Amino acid sequence: MITKIKKRDGREVPFNIEKITNAIFKATKAAGQEDYDLAMILADKVVQRLHEDPNKAIPTVEEIQDIVEKVLIEEGHANTAKKYILYRAERTRVREMNTRLMKIYEDLTFKESKDNDLKRENANIDGDTAMGTMLKYGSEGAKQFCEMYILKPEHAQAHKEGDIHIHDLDFLTLTTTCCQIDIVKLFKDGFSTGHGHLREPNDIHSYSALACIAIQSNQNDQHGGQSIPNFDYGMALGVAKTYARLYRQNLAKALKLFTANEDAVNIVNEILQKITKETNLRPTLAPNEQYLKLEQDYLMKYIGDADIISKAQDFAIKEAEVEIDRNTYQAMEAFVHNLNTMHSRAGAQVPFSSINYGTDTSPEGRLVIKNILLATEAGLGNGETPIFPVHIFKVKEGINYNPGDPNYDMFKLACRVSAKRLFPNFSFIDAPFNLKYYKAGQPETEIAYMGCRTRVIGNVHEPSREIIYGRGNLSFTTVNLPRIAIRSNGDMDYFFEELDKKIDLIIDQLLERYEIQARKKVKNFPFLMGQGVWIDSDKLNWEDEIREVLKHGTLSMGFIGLAECLKALIGKHHGESEDAQQLGLKIIRHMRQRMDDTSKKYKMNFTLLATPAEGLSGRFVRMDRELFGSIEGITDREYYTNSFHIPVYYEINAFNKIRLEAPYHELTNAGHITYVEMDGDPTQNLQAFEKIIRAMKEAGIGYGSINHPVDRDPVCGFTGIIGNTCPSCGREEGDIKFERIRRITGYLVGSLERFNDAKRAEERDRVKHI
C-alpha cells in the first residue's frame, strides 16, 4: 500500500490520489473531454500500476507522471496524453526557470561585481550598491517573466538558444529604447517633471540645470539612452538671455559711475523694456548697431551726453563679454559634473546621456561649443575624465571642416579635447546617406546620433517628417550570423535561406513587441509623452494610446560577427580578402533590403543596426563553442567581432580599416560606428589625430571615433599613458590603483574589471600602424 511519495527536493509527503485525478482531469478538459468520473477511473488504474511494483513503496513524482502517460496512451486517450505531456513539460519549464532565477538572485546578493558579469553589465550602474543590486533583481526577474509568459514560444526559444538576442528583454512590456530631446521646444514655456512645473529658464545656468533634469526625467520613462541633438542651438538661447542681463547690469553700473545718477538702474531697465516691446531688439553678443543707436537716443533724454553714453555702452559690452564667457563655462562645467553624479531609476543608474553640437555659428552657439569642450578637457573635480555625456561633434563642410569655415576653430578644439578625453566622437553630415536629409538652416535635419551609435532620420511612416527631433528607437533584436554560417558548411543558398528564416522571425518578434508598446497610454510615459518630448505626443490626451505616434520611431534588426561569419563561409574575413569584403557587403545589403521591404509593407520604420555588442559578443560565442567546439578564427576567442568591424586581432593600417568599414555605414541605417585605435598619446600628435578624422569624413563614414588609452594617477593627478609606474611622480601601482578609462560600445568605463570586459568585448578595435 503506497502511503507516501518523494518530491523533487527529496521530501517525503503523504500520497494523495486526488492530485493524480485532478491532473488527469485538467488534461481531459484541455482535450475537449471534461469528464471527472473518467479521470477518477484512470487515476485508479495509475495506482494499480504503482502497486504492481513492490520496489516502489515510495515512488517519486516523476515516476508517477511517467505511469500516468502510459495509462492514458494504453487506455486509448492519446489526445489527453498529449495535453498531459505538454502540461508536464510546461510545469518543468516553470520550475527550471524559478530555480535559475533563484541562482541568479543568489549570485547578485553574495558576489561582488568583479566576480559577477550581471553586476557589471552596464557601464552606468554600480552593481555593488543596494540600489544597483535591486535594479538587477528586478531586471533578471522581468527577463524570465517575459521569456516564460510574454514572448511567443518560438521567439523565446530562439533567444534562449542563441539564434537571436532580444535586447533589453526586461523592459519588453514596459517602454521604448531612446529619444532625441528637442530642448528648444521643451524649454519654451517650461515643463513639468510630475512634481511641479519648472518655468522657462532665463539664464544659462538654468538652461544647463534643466537640460540635466530633462535627460534624467526622460531616462525614467525609457530603458535606453537620452540625447540632445541641438545642444549648441538650445543652450545658445540661454547665453543670449544671460548676456542681455549682464549687459544691462554693466550699462547701469557704468552710467551710475559716470553720472552719479542713483536712478541709473531703473532708467536702463525702463529703456530696455521699451525697445524690446516696440522693436523686439535687445543686446546681443554680435554687435547690434541698430539696437545701440536706439538705446543712445533713449538715453539722451535722461543723460544728455553722447560721449558718456558711448563710453558706458563700450564698458558694458566689454564687461558683459568677459562675464558671459565665464558664466557659460561655469554652466557647462556644472552640466558635465551633474551628468556624472545625478541618478535616475530609484538612484540606481547614471543616465545614458549624449549631446550633439558643432554647427551653430552664432556667437552664442560658438560660446557654448567652446566652453562645453573646455569643461570636458578640464575634467571633473580632481581632473578625472568625465564618463558622461557622450559628446558628438557634428562635422560639416562650409561650417566647421575647412580653414575659413566659421566654426573651423571649434573643429580643431574638438580634435584636441578628444585626443585627451576620448570625447567628442565625430558625426559627418556630408556622408551621402546623411546629407540627403540635410536642409541648410533647419537644425532638425542635421544628423545626430545616440552615443552608442543609434541613428533615426528616415521616416517611411510620414516621409514629410524626416527629422531628428523627438524620435528614437523602439526596440532592436540581433541575429547570430556566425551560427548560420557554421551550419551552412559553405553552402551559400542554405546560408541565405536560413538567414531569411531568422529575419522573418525577428520581424515577427519586433512587431509583437511593438503591439505591446502601442497599447500603452500617454499616462504610462508622463515625461516622454506627457510633456511632448516624443514627436506628435503633444496632440494626445492623458488616456490616449500612443500607437500612431510610435510609428515615427524605428524597429531595428542588428547583427553580430560578420567577420567570423565570413571565415566560416569562405575561410577569410573582409580584412583579409576582397572576395570576403564583397560577400560581406552582399550579406549586409541583403539584410538591409529585407528591412526596406518590410518598411514598405507595414509603412513603419524597419531599419538595420550595426549592433553595439556589450556582453552579447561573448554570449553568442560561448553558446556556439558548446554546439560546434572550438573552430579556428571563429569560435576560438572569447568574443565575436562587433557588427561589421575588422577583427580586433588583425593588424591593419588605420586608413585601410576606415576604407573597408565605410560602405557598411550606408547599409546600416539604424546606426553604426567605426573606431580606430592609437597606441600612443594622441595629444602629442594632433596632426595625426585630425588626419584620421578627415580620412573618416572623406571615406563616407557616418559616425566615428578614435580610441586611445586614458590613464590617471589619482595621487599626483597626472593624466596620460601609464604603465606600471607613473611617468610624472614615479609612483608604482600598489594599493592605490591607477585609473584607466576605456570605451565600450560608445560609452566610457573606468574600472579595471570593466576594462577587462572591454578587452573581451570587441569594441576596442586596435590598429597598430597609424
Could you tell me the radius of gyration in angstroms? Answer: 31 Å
* Alpha-beta classification: alpha/beta
How many helices? The count is: 24
Apparent shape: elongated
Average pLDDT rating: 90
Distance between the termini: 82 Å
Order of strands, widest sheet: 4-7-8-9-10-15-14
Low-pLDDT sequence parts: 751-770
Strand runs, count: 19
Strand fraction: 5-15%
Please estimate the helix content. Answer: 40-55%
Q: Largest sheet, if any?
A: 7 strands, mixed
Task: Give short descriptive properties of this protein.
elongated; 49% helix; 24 helices; alpha/beta; 19 strands; seven-stranded mixed beta sheet; 770 residues; single chain
Overall description:
It is a single chain. The chain has 770 residues and is of the alpha/beta class. Helix content is 49%, strand content 10%. The chain is built from 24 helices and 19 strands. The chain has a 7-stranded mixed beta sheet. Strands 3-11-12-13 form a 4-stranded mixed beta sheet. Strand 1 and strand 2 (12-14) form a beta hairpin. The longest helix has 34 residues, at 306-339. The termini are far apart. Mean pLDDT is 90; it is low at 751-770.
